[in-house]
Design a protein that fits this description.
seven-stranded mixed β-sheet; 12 helices; glycosyltransferase
């Protein structure tokens, strides 16, 4: 892996490691939350001892309107450990909104998002930080092995990624929401104004230098998955409708195909009517308008869908681009778009 950070600059991290925020959305996780907190605190200790994260690092638990004892447990953990921050949403808003809320509360140099069941093991945070220190602003956690998943879960999940790719949606295969993002990447993500969140697609769209870390998925610590088939389908449909107008274009294509078939059938109906003499009286007068109007309707729906798709993309008001670096323009000190190397160099002696 090629390093973007000059060797003479990198020791600055070793003297003053970047701060880390770990964001953990929680919904009805009373069975695992204490064990999860202990595992993440231990992981934070190891990262700090190894010089990968500073002592200012924190863990943000976001309670997504749980109906069990998750929130009281989080309140107790936050009171016992100064490195734990507990955030409660007013009601259940869904995993993506809870994760977004957690990201919005952080101010650290690096932010890792991870699920409370710890199937995506915290031991993978260390190689993510190494990739960050090598100049990557986004590090995707990729599930290389899913042996702990059921056959149905594995096949449906992998089929979903292939379907999204077929619809033109740019996703990292087998990556969910376990990732590391730089401060700049998080701030840029928070500028997206849309309410129908599909974070794994939005993060991919940021376009900053990225890489991935592969790992084998573990079993849940306890409890049941919070992503049953119903929620998986809901998230999949959200991803399709948020990042692809392929279904609308499929209507246009279907209309064109139906129109071509209708023209051929119309020619056949006229041939039967005019030259064979075997047509049943009234048959041609029924078939011709049905074939013609049906194909025209499909084609018109497709054209309307094209315009609707354009309007849908416009109302999202997504940024047209993100700047990665500006050189030689007298960038203000507090400019939000700063190259990673600039922040790496902060704190260096002037001589």
């Amino acid at each position: 892996m090629e390093s973007l950070v000059e060797p003479s600059v990198r020791p600055v991290w070793e003297k003053g490691a970047p701060s880390l925020a770990i964001v953990v959305p929680c919904y009805n996780e009373e069975a695992v939350i204490v064990e999860t907190a202990a595992a993440l605190l231990a992981a934070l200790d190891q990262l700090e001892a190894a010089g990968r994260a500073s002592v200012a690092s924190k863990i943000y638990f976001v309670d997504d309107g749980s109906m069990d004892a998750t929130w009281p447990l989080l309140e107790r953990l936050a009171a016992e450990h100064t490195r734990i921050v507990a955030v409660a949403l007013s009601c259940n808003r869904g995993h993506q909104n809870a994760l977004y809320a957690g990201l919005s509360q952080t101010s650290e140099d690096m932010v890792v998002s991870i699920d409370a069941d710890l199937q995506d093991g915290p031991e993978n945070i260390a190689p993510m930080i190494d990739a960050f220190l090598d100049g990557h602003e986004i590090v995707f956690g990729v599930r290389e092995k899913r042996e702990t998943d059921t056959w149905f879960k594995r096949m449906s999940a992998e089929g979903y990624y292939r379907l999204m790719r077929g619809l033109g949606v740019d996703l990292v295969f087998n990556h969910a929401d376990f990732r590391l993002m730089s401060r700049r990447a998080v701030d840029t993500l928070l500028e997206y104004p849309e309410t129908n969140l599909f974070l794994r697609g939005m993060v991919r769209e940021l376009g900053f230098r990225s890489t991935s870390v592969s790992y084998a998925r573990r079993r849940r610590l306890a409890g049941e998955s919070k992503y049953p088939l119903r929620r998986m389908l809901s998230l999949g449909w959200r991803g399709v409708t948020a990042y692809s107008i392929a279904p609308l274009r499929a209507i246009t294509l279907l209309g064109l195909i139906a129109g071509g078939i209708a023209l051929a059938l119309i020619a056949w109906v006229l041939a039967v009517k005019l030259f064979s003499g075997n047509a049943v009286p009234g048959w041609a007068s029924i078939m011709l308008p049905v074939l013609f109007i049906g194909s025209v309707q499909l084609l018109c729906l497709g054209v309307i869908g094209e315009y609707l798709g354009k309007i849908y993309q416009e109302v999202k008001r997504r940024p047209r681009f993100h700047l990665r670096e500006i050189v030689g323009k007298g960038t203000p000190e507090n400019h939000r778009v700063r190259p990673l190397a600039d922040r790496v160099g902060e704190g260096q002696s002037s001589d």
